[in-house]
C-alpha cells in the first residue's frame, strides 16, 4: 500500500501488480511537493535523482530537477531489485556502445 501523502498529481496513474505477486501498487507522481518527503529517509542521491524509504516496504525514486516539479515513482522492495536488474542491463548495453565508439580501432 502506498503511504498517504500530500502529492498534487496533474496525472495520477496507478498500475496494480498481477495477483500472486502481492498487493503492492506502483504509483506515478507527476508533481511532488518538496516537503512531502522531508520526513522520509533519503537512501541514495545524485545531482537529479534520489531514492527515499517510505513506509511499509515502499520506496520512491524521485527526479529532483531544479527547473521543473519533482516527479517520481513508488516501488516495493521487490520492485527495487527488479528495476535495479533492468537498469544494470541497460547500463551494460550503453557502456558497450560508448566503449566501442571510443575504441582506438574505431578512431582510425
Key attributes of the depicted protein:
108 residues, alpha+beta, six-stranded antiparallel beta sheet, 1 helix, 6 strands, 32% strand, elongated, disordered N terminus
Describe the overall structure.
The protein has 108 residues and is α+β, with helices and mostly antiparallel strands. The protein has a domain at 13-76. 24% of the residues lie in helices and 32% in strands. It is built from one helix and six strands, in the order ββββββα. The chain has one helix at 77-102, and strands at residues 13-16, 25-32, 41-45, 49-53, 58-63, 70-76. A six-stranded antiparallel beta sheet has the order 1-2-6-5-4-3. Strand 4 and strand 5 (58-63) form a beta hairpin.
Quote the beta fraction.
25-35%
Q: Based on CA inertia axes, which overall geometry fits? A: elongated
Order of helices and strands: EEEEEEH
Uncertain segments are 1-23
Helix percentage: 10-25%
**Reading side by side through the largest sheet, how are the strands ordered?**
1-2-6-5-4-3
User: Distance between the terminal alpha carbons, to the nearest Å?
Assistant: 56 Å
E-strand count: 6
Q: Which sheet architecture does the biggest sheet show?
A: 6 strands, antiparallel
Amino acid at each position: 500500500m502506498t503511504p498517504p501523502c500530500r502529492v498534487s498529481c496533474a496525472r495520477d496513474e496507478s498500475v496494480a501488480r498481477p495477483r500472486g505477486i502481492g498487493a503492492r501498487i506502483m504509483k506515478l507522481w507527476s508533481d511532488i511537493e518538496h516537503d512531502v518527503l522531508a520526513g522520509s529517509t533519503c537512501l541514495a542521491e545524485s545531482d537529479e535523482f534520489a531514492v527515499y524509504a517510505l513506509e511499509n516496504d515502499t520506496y520512491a525514486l524521485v527526479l529532483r530537477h531544479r527547473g521543473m516539479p519533482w516527479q517520481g515513482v513508488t516501488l516495493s522492495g521487490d520492485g527495487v531489485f527488479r528495476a535495479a536488474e533492468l537498469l544494470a542491463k541497460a547500463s551494460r548495453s550503453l557502456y558497450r556502445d560508448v566503449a566501442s565508439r571510443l575504441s582506438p580501432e574505431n578512431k582510425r
